[in-house]
Amino acid sequence: MPVHSTTRNISNLIAVGIAMALLGTSGCTPQAQSESSTTINASPNTDFQTVTMVENLEHPWGMAWLPDGDLLITERPGGLRIVRDGVLDPNPIPGVPKVLAQSQGGLLDIAVHPRFEENRLVYFTYSDGTISANRTHIARATFDGSTLSNWEVIFQVSQTKPRGQHFGSRLLWLPDGTLLVSIGDGGNPPIQLEGEFIRQQAQNLSSHLGKVIRINEDGSIPADNPFANNPQATPEVWSYGHRNIQGLALDPTTNQVWATEHGARGGDEVNLLEAGANYGWPLATHSREYSGGLISPETSLPGMVDPKVIWTPSIAPSGLTVYTGTQFPQWQGNLFAGGLVSQDIRRIEVERSGSVIKEVSISIGQRVRDVRQGPDGLIYVLTDASNGQLIRLEPTFR
Q1: Which of 59, 166, 242, 262 is catalytic?
Q2: Tell me: the pLDDT tens digits for 127-139?
Q3: Residue 59 falls in the annotated catalytic set
Q4: Which of these, 272, 245, 247, 270, lies nearest to 353 by C-alpha position?
Q5: How many CB atoms lie within 10 A of CB 343?
Q6: Mapping DSSP to helix (H, G, I), strand (E, B) and coil, where does residue 5 land?
């Protein structure tokens, strides 16, 4: 049963200032001015109510539904939890190996195989290694309803990096059965790799850092990847020039892939992703150094794709879904992007061409880590806290 229900007063949802984010958890800090390419509006307070379904989650990060309606939730320190009939099982699911749970690292995203009823496979991203040498891993395991078994690493990032920043880690199945995975750029200065700031790896096609990769279900490389025949590139790369994507979603109506990406100090982005495209980081960016200086004098460059939305001050985006359900017919086709620092969800109306029409803030009042549409057509939210919650958005009148 739900823990708590309350109808939000949406007219008071737009914050004038956004609180300072902790660098180790959000990767973003705010600036004093707004560069958002859309006007943020209020929403009528009669559209929906928020219902707290589950509490006592330890820094939850990702969620995925099983065909029977049960919900799997990852906890960044390394726990895998299951919610059955709206009730959180008090015991974590066994079978998850030890992960590097420091700073932004740990057990991160989760995705259920599209043919789960046949193969029982569940996929995970997590950080592995030590604080001085770590990388993002992708693994899959068999879930029998109570326990994980046959844990298998099917991909790991090509280079190790120090510290606990920028693992990326969102998973997204495409209609052709291949899997997209976001990989962060490795972290902020002064972190270096090969004699330069590690963030420069986002422009290096022979590196996985700062990329979205595309793999087959077993970790092998699709033959039609955009750089599969480029000897100067690692063939898993699907798009590049990214800082740290923590929101990744497919619009099944248009087959468009959307991403939300952390900037540094300001310059968070919403991007419409295409195979082979360069999204600019760190050569073209609206972000600034945490010290306040320019990262690059360029905000747009030829041959690089500009973002659809820019958030300055940062909202620290994490979690993204494209709404296709019938519970909120007025929201069909809208993007829902969570904000860690802004502690809200941004509902973004887009045209089929990808042009952004309007942006609306839905206050949650907690750090939003993930946003998903459930199989019931309702919208589910995970909050990032030591006592994290699973919250559901429901129509006010059902």
Answers
A1: 166
A2: 999 999 999 999 9
A3: no
A4: 272
A5: 21
A6: strand
